[in-house]
């Protein structure tokens, strides 16, 4: 439970108590049973750009990195922040970093979206980087709506909430990035601010507030993907380093619209996409996982050959996954695949299917994150 939720419940209860009783309850709430401390994340919205548009839905205080007040930003008035010498410039203000803090629970505007929390603008390289400083729980309202489908059953959305919370904490503790904890893309977690918040995502996040998956008392690397194509992978078979909680398990994602897919390429088209090998003659997997996911592919053309990694293969050919087979016929290569994503950890469509069958979110999480425990965030 967050500080905000606890304060609301406590305030409601105190109104019904005799005057001499409330001091005891306050002492108990603040001293004997401390609530979970709020966690503020640093989300990189724009990195190293020449200009970023910022604003606030309400009047906002503008501060420098030391917390000194520089002035006030008028509500609904977007301004451009730019590099200025070795500092950041915004209107008449200039500092090594600028912080915009909305008043009266306002929202911040960064480039083309509204976000909760505050904005920090720093100088990075030859440009500026805009960060959204946001409470973890409020961040999840958006992430769950962006990563999952808001109309899904609550148990699936709860599972996504716990996975996303755990992943964010893991990244915060281990990324080693001195500037930000996560960005807004699939490289970390998709985050779109208020645009991807829904009543259902608020409910799922609030219902699981503070809950994470842990192993040996620490947040796990709670990765997830859309659909595994029938079976998730042992992490070491794809990413080399073994982890006891990322084990391959049977998936229940057969209802996924991406469970099966196909793409066709001509030999000349493949040659252009790969580059440097001419017209493609053959594609031969050199390393696959026990469940058939291609990790390395040898591509031979009439002017040479290349060894391509799984990540390169997906990017170059725009494949949904590397779980596929190849057939060749008269200069055309047919790629028939299954699933969407890396196939490790939580399968989102598998979680949906299990939730539809009445499986609870804790059981869903326990299935996809073997040997991990559902616990409360550490204080």
From TrEMBL:
GO BP, sorted A to Z: sporulation resulting in formation of a cellular spore
Pfam families for the chain: SpoIID
Recorded coiled-coil stretches: none
InterPro entries for this protein: Bact_Sporulation_Assoc (IPR051922), SpoIID/LytB (IPR013486), SpoIID/LytB_N (IPR013693)
One annotated Gene Ontology cellular component of this protein: outer membrane-bounded periplasmic space
Stretches assigned to the Sporulation stage II protein D amidase enhancer LytB N-terminal domain: 126-215
NCBIfam families associated with the record: SpoIID_LytB (TIGR02669)
Protein's name according to its UniProt entry: Sporulation stage II protein D amidase enhancer LytB N-terminal domain-containing protein
């Amino acid at each position: 439970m967050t500080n905000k939720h606890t304060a609301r419940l406590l305030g409601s209860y105190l109104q019904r108590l005799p005057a001499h009783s409330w001091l005891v309850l306050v002492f108990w709430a603040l001293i004997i049973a401390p609530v979970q401390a709020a966690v503020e994340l640093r989300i990189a919205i724009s990195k190293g750009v020449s200009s970023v548009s910022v604003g606030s839905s309400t009047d906002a205080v503008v501060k420098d990195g030391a917390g000194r007040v520089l002035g006030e930003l008028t509500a609904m008035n977007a301004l451009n922040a730019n590099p200025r010498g070795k500092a950041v410039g915004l209107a008449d203000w200039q500092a090594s970093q600028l912080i915009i803090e909305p008043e009266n629970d306002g929202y911040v505007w960064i480039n083309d979206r509204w976000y909760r929390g505050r904005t920090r603008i720093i100088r990075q390289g030859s440009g500026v980087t805009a960060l959204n400083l946001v409470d973890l729980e409020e961040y999840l309202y958006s992430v769950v709506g962006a990563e999952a489908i808001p109309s899904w059953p609550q148990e699936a959305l709860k599972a996504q909430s716990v996975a996303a919370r755990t992943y964010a904490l893991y990244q915060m503790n281990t990324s080693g990035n001195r500037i930000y904890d996560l960005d807004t893309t699939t490289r970390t977690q998709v985050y779109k601010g208020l645009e991807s918040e829904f009543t259902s995502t608020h409910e799922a996040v609030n219902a699981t507030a503070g809950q994470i998956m842990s192993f040996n008392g620490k947040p796990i690397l709670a990765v997830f993907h859309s659909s595994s194509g029938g079976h998730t992978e042992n992490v070491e078979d794809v990413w080399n380093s073994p982890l006891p909680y990322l084990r391959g398990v049977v998936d229940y994602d057969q209802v996924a619209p991406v469970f099966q897919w196909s793409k066709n390429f001509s030999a000349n088209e493949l040659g252009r996409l790969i580059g440097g090998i001419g017209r493609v003659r053959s594609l031969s997997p050199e390393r696959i996982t026990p469940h058939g996911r291609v990790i390395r592919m040898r591509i031979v053309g009439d002017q040479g050959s290349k060894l391509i990694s799984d990540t390169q293969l997906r990017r170059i050919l725009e494949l949904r996954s590397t779980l596929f087979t190849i057939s060749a016929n008269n200069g055309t290569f047919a790629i028939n695949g299954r699933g969407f994503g890396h196939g490790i950890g939580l399968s989102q469509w598998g979680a949906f299917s299990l939730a539809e069958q009445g499986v609870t979110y804790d059981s869903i999480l326990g299935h996809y994150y073997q040997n991990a425990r559902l616990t409360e965030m550490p204080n």
